[in-house]
Batch of 2 targets.
Target 1
Amino acid sequence: MILLKSHSCGELNKKHLGAKVTLAGWVNRRRDHGGLTFIDLRDREGIVQVVFNPEVSKLCHEVASQMRSEYVVRVSGEVALRPPGTENPKLPTGDIEVIAYNTDILNTSKTPPFYINEDTEIEESLRLKYRYLDLRRARMKENLLLRYRVVKFIRDFLDTKGFIEIETPILIKSTPEGARDYLVPSRVHPGKFYALPQSPQQLKQLLMVAGVEKYFQIAKCFRDEDTRADRQPEFTQLDLEMSFVEEEDILNLLEELFISMVKTIKPEIRMTKPFPRLTYTEAMEYYGTDKPDLRLGMEIRDLSDIVAQSNFSIFLSAIAEGGKVKGICAPGCANYTRHQLVELNEVVRNVGAEGFITLPLGASGGSINDLTLEMVRSVATKFLTLDQIKQIAERLGANRGDLLFIIAGKASKIVDVALGELRLELGRRLKLADPNVLAFIFIVDFPLLWWNEETGQWEAMHHPFTAPKDEDASLLDVAPEKVQGKHYDIVCNGCEIAGGSIRIHTSELQRKIFKLLGYNDDEIEERFGHLLEAFDYGAPPHGGIAPGIDRIVMLLTGEETIREVIPFPKSQTACDLTFSAPSTITEQQLAELHLRLREES
RNA sequence: GGCCCCGUGGUGUAGUGGACAAACAUGCCACCCUGUCACGGUGGAGAUCGGGGGUUCGAAUCCCCCCGGGGUCGCCA
């Protein structure tokens, strides 16, 4: 192989002393001392100092004076020990330097629009416009590398488990039942469209029918929905499916995958092993969400039985109307100001909860047994006895100096969600999330269906291919809301990182579910006929899961958004700011696709 | 579609009704400098304050509309 370089900048050390090397890279920084010039030369592997001494080469020294930041240069020189006292411990290559005897400028560079050699905050739209420069920065380079390591680890791991990686098409059929599809017009078939896969769900099930048994793919998925910090129009998931398995097999495999991945890639990160398991009901009950961040502690507890003994009408009426009174304890927050409490009340109000009560448990440093009513500055002291307050404090695991929040409501779900939001806000304010912990958990026992009030129809909690639990199958006809699905999620630090299920593998049951979801026979045939027919040719029992690669890498890098781990992400309005996509196309292109643009009113 | 935040020399910030002919840091350009490593020194250039309209004697600053970016609710089988 012929390269313009013999070594990379970052690999050089004392072992190379005396070696004649040729390096090529970018000028990270130039320090011109007049008679002597230093260049920090950067390539993918790191930075090394190059010395241009006119006594070694007058020509090199002159060329170096022309160099500027981000110029692409090649240097031939000798690796030498730095003079004693001039070593740079901040640099991995800081013991040595390269004395240049030959150099040339391979390309010049305009002054970049932002710093590449410093880690400063830069407006994201500018970074995205010049993403190729942004990716030169150390932080982004490290993120790209870590992402590669994650995907490499997954491939190696699954290979040892007997999985094979199979590609599935990007141009498939629109079967609208979930997110909005990205569509591609057909030139050959006027008026017809392909859809980009929202996930390879049906394809991987067909691969199971094909007898592949263990399949995976690092798959691009496309969903035309609004973006979030952890959502992009196109994203990458590890798509995985196995035949002849039950829920437990999939969970054990994924647990082993994630534990060994984290140990290998981020050994300093702590995890709870084995991963705790929560049912969907427990998650909602104790955390007010189906993707709880277990690092925060502060579990929600039901207080209805205690306050039922009080004469506080807010509590009593909530309970009488079939609702709940629940609470949460904010450690050490008894001294919160009125203003802070109003702000927190706002959080609760935003999700539609009323009946917000605060109970500060006096000053810190003392037993809860010594608490007196006078210490508790709350309206609730008029209606709650000291003993009731102590019972509440005990149930919430509270100490003196803590602040209790109680929410009463006739709709239990809103009480849970409000306390869940409050918990997240308190977690942020109290910085309870340990960045060196990855709190993986499994969420299991989801309902199969939920009733959509707006459309007046049953909808799939996960997707329509999820199998009901065997013992619940008979309930499908009489009480669909009670049916649990063989559906499981993996949640980590409050982020849903994977969802999967054991699938339906008979056409009979699959048809029944489609009908329950409101499709008529014709629609079922038109949209899912291919899948149902396949099930009639010996489809094996099968199931799988789909972890989100972007989210996993985001958690491992400690980034706040998945855009930081995607080389070329879209903006919130789904634009590619590097290419300025989407863009208009020519009239000829439209005509070939048999399309005419509508006049927007 | 709703709500919230941001937009000031290349970059990051300050300035929130008059003393702004817009400040600071860094970057950039020129000159000086042989051991620096965020080198140092001297000098210099660089901003229609995102765009448009309005209020006012006076607007970077207040109001309205638009554009761009971000967060979030809805949405995300």
Note: The CA atoms of residues 247 and 295 of chain A lie 26 Å apart.
Target 2
Amino acid sequence: MPPIKVKMLDSGSAPEGGEIASVGAPKGRAKLRGKPLTRIQREKQDVILEAALDVFSEKGFLGATIDQIAEAAGMSKPNLLYYFPRKEEIYKRLMTSMLDIWLAPLRELDSVGDPVPELRSYIRRKLEMSRDFPRQSRLFAGEMLQGGPRIVDVLEGDLKALVDEKAKVLERWMDEGKLRRTDPYHLIFSIWATTQHYADFDVQVRAVLGRDRGGEGRFEDAARFLETLFMHGVLTKPS
Amino acid sequence: MPPIKVKMLDSGSAPEGGEIASVGAPKGRAKLRGKPLTRIQREKQDVILEAALDVFSEKGFLGATIDQIAEAAGMSKPNLLYYFPRKEEIYKRLMTSMLDIWLAPLRELDSVGDPVPELRSYIRRKLEMSRDFPRQSRLFAGEMLQGGPRIVDVLEGDLKALVDEKAKVLERWMDEGKLRRTDPYHLIFSIWATTQHYADFDVQVRAVLGRDRGGEGRFEDAARFLETLFMHGVLTKPS
DNA sequence: TAACGTTTTTTCCAACTGGTCAAATTTCTG
DNA sequence: CAGAAATTTGACCAGTTGGAAAAAACGTTA
């Protein structure tokens, strides 16, 4: 199973020179397009992406400003613009590189394994991602909230394909009587929803749990609860 | 059980005149503060709030502009500003009036009823809210994503109180052996997460389910799945 | 060290932002 | 209908926004 190719709409404005080669210098002002990146370029891009993740995840794409990102990255706005000529470019880079690791747990849901430990560990790993990469989760959630204009292609393409594949795995388990027969798509949705909730709605979770239970231990509590929920539901008398 | 008083930080910049009465005209330019609203005022405010809900839920607080709201409401920016002197005022009004109906299903979770139908209907009603008021759900989710700066007070106040109360109900049911013993708070979180997911991540859900299964029927599918999940979990062999 | 490519800074801009204000218009009330 | 109150408009403003241009500073290597 090849790693999902998380290709965005396109990785930059169409390559210089259309059908009829436009004479003269490239119009897109493609400053660092000649591929091999220098050390400094790699380093600075990383710094920028890290800063951008902070700002974008907190303010959303529209709410974030280049100035804020530049300041968080410790450089001037024109300097940042030297590495990423447009705001959207940073955002897209962030989104692609993020989706890749974000979907890793699902990709590893193994069809040859046993349903119980497989599902159990999938849920746990998803929850760990919420704990360890909350900014990425919020970035993605923000994009979804806005209707995913910069990412729909991936959703309908690679993501759907991956989910289709894993849904089949779940269905087979159901056929074999190892899992209760339910809708595999909604099962996946519910795992996503419950785990990501702890990153995306962190404020609410903390506020409701209060100072005593809202600390780091809340992830262990959540893990325990979700395991019970998904394995047995909340009823005492099983049907 | 009195209806939650969903009071925001405060319902307008502090009433004119501080401790030491500031002489002269009110500085806050309190145009329509003398309470009894005219017919036009009520109508226009409704139109504005409706338009603002569209724009805010789509772009977030920061991403939305007064101009966009004004255009969606079919009036000029200064005219809109005549009814709501600041952008944040619209947002807060929206949030308060929304939270009220948003929490209604939880409020109605009845301690005297039987756990099974009570929980079942709570889940269904929450899911219905996601279907019928997706913009409100997204508005709230967006606020959460940004750390809820304009709403933390409510979360830590009335919301926490309500959840505390209902958690006790759940706990009693567990004591009586009517519910499996688990964490009631995380149970509530998981119901919120799974149901609101269908509003907040609508694009993703549609994209993954595809054209055939992404239609209106998806809510019935979700309802069936969630009922099974919460009641029995996904295992065939109950422990 | 001279020349060259890379990186950074300074300056600038046009469009947009939230919001004000006074004047003009409409609606309501007697 | 007159007059007052409520509503709407057009002009305006200071600050911010994403981004462009060019020049300056820097680093590297012959």
Note: Residues 39-94 of chain A form a domain with the Arc Repressor Mutant, subunit A fold (CATH 1.10.10.60).
